[in-house]
Every structure is written in C-alpha cells, then in structure tokens.
Design a protein that fits this description.
Length: 110
C-alpha cells in the first residue's frame, strides 16, 4: 500500500508495508516533516485520525472490497473531502494552513 501526500505541485510517497500493523507514528512524522518544509500548518487537521480509516477503507475488506472505502466516503471525515477512485484508490483533500490544498491518496497493493 502506498500513501501519496501532495501540497500544490509537490508530493511525497510513503510506503505502508503492513497495513494491518502500520507504524502510524512514523508515517505522521514523515507527513508533518514534509508539510513543515512546505510551510504548511496542519495543527487543525486530524491526519492521525484519518489515516487509520483510509487504511482500513482499502485493506480492511471485511464487508467486501471496496465497501469499506465507499462507506468512509459516504460518512465523511471532518473537513476532508473524500472520494473513492476506480481501482481501489481512496482520496482525501482539504485546505490546510496558508490556503494550500493538501491531498492524501491511498493506493492499494493489488
């Protein structure tokens, strides 16, 4: 599984090797470092709450794929605009500090 984090035209790819035991603290540190380099204030964004839901939406197919991803999109999450993209991709967009668009895309490994 791969997470792509984008601010405007810059992006960072983060592999998530084991989605069932993901090191979310390490992933969050990478994201925060990237956002800090780009001058983005993300303190009001619950990225730490969103990531496990996105991972489960793709990897946790207890209800049948892509049921969980579509369920997350229909429920929504705070101020993120969620979308399911054909091929099992889950996208979350929002406007971060300084008015920059933050995009998170989770890509499955199948």
């Amino acid at each position: 599984m791969e997470l792509d984090v984008s601010i405007d035209n810059d992006s960072l790819s983060i592999p998530i090797r084991n989605p069932f035991r993901a090191d979310l603290d390490a992933v969050l540190e990478e994201i925060k470092g990237f956002l800090s380099q780009k001058g983005v204030d993300a303190k009001d964004l619950d990225i730490g709450g969103l990531l496990p839901k996105m991972i489960k939406g793709i990897a946790g197919c207890e209800s049948g794929c892509p049921a969980n991803a579509k369920s997350l999109v229909s429920k929504g999450f705070q101020n993120f605009e969620l979308a399911y993209i054909e091929g099992g991709i889950l996208s979350a967009k929002t406007v971060a500090g300084n008015g920059k668009e933050l995009s998170l895309k989770m890509f499955p490994d199948f």
